[in-house]
Amino acid sequence: MQLQQSLKASKYRLVITGFCLIATTTSGCGPSAATSLDRRFLAGNKTGPNTSQTTPQANESINAINNSNLMNAARLNSFRPGEIWRDTEGQVINAHGGGFYVENGVYYWFGEVKGQDGLARAGISLYSSTDLYNWRNEGLVLAVDKSNPDSDIAEGAIIERPKVIFNKKTKKYVMWFHLELKGQGYGSARAGVAVSDTVRGPYRFLTSFKPNNEMSRDQTLFVDDNGKAYQIAASEENQTMHINELTDDYLKPNGKFVRAFIGRSMEAPAVFKYKGRYHLIASGCTGWDPNSARQAVADNMMGPWTELDNPAQGPESDVTFRSQSTYVLEVTPGSGQFIYIGDRWNPDNLADSRYIWLPLQYDNGRFTMSWKDEWQWGQALPVTP
Ligand code: DGJ
Fold first, then answer.
1. Which pTM was predicted?
2. Which residues line ligand 1 at a C-beta cut-off of 6 Å?
């Protein structure tokens, strides 16, 4: 893997689309969360062949972007947060609410294929990269079920925030995602689980459930050094996070869980470990609209967790640079170079949501990040090594 140490003068300008604060159907932050998403979006619910990478509706939105610019599949050598990010074929990357997995020097980016609205009409995409800048589209790794409207993952369900971990005992790649059954808005609050023998999939959908019979919306997975895995999810109508220990095969909760950040209305959890401590970056709960990021630290995954201050610093830190966390990626395991990865949602056209990747700096027990128009991952080095 090649590390570019110097930024080349950019011929591009940062393009920031107007961020819309219009209320849209959201996952909600209280008891009234179970809204009827389908009513608003059924009109766009077209069908297409199962094998397509994206649905006609998703294609329509993304093609508008692709056609509005000169196609550009040039090699990239820096991050440009908030700009349109194209894959190695010149197509706009469609992998929102992403989860990352690294194996043999290859980074894998799993994400939601978004169309204009929030309904899943394609499924979960996968991209791969060896340098984090240039991503190759590996296709759809979990497709919605277009043949069975009663399937848990029927076309028109809501499938968000896929995360993949590898189980050393079973040799299976295990994917968890937030699942809302078709036609129930955000009312069903379930976790879906799929497996594959290879990282590139396809992933076979196994089941969906409420972990420990509790609600589960925004979620992530974390595997500790000892192989123990956890699902961390917004529960109790998004008021309280649940940290669920998983069984040894990572396919379900083992029954042990803790309630954390009680009543703090946190979403979008991203968990990572540094210097033997567990760190969490998350968001508040304002639907598709951005808010101040949360940060917390613990000596034990099951808590107690101590909340720290907003990791974002400087202008627009109060709205996390108009983004919502989805993952914190360590560039090389053990390097301490962490990247904050977030989504800048565009609720008017979710396919045109952008990606905000920023370097995290570690100082005195906490992480901070500030805005950068353009940067390279050599700059993600912690202040205190
Ligand atoms: C915020 C969540 O973080 C997103 O994943 C999505 O569920 C939206 N809410 C929907 O309102």
1. 0.85
2. 26-27, 97, 160-161, 218, 267-268, 287-288, 324
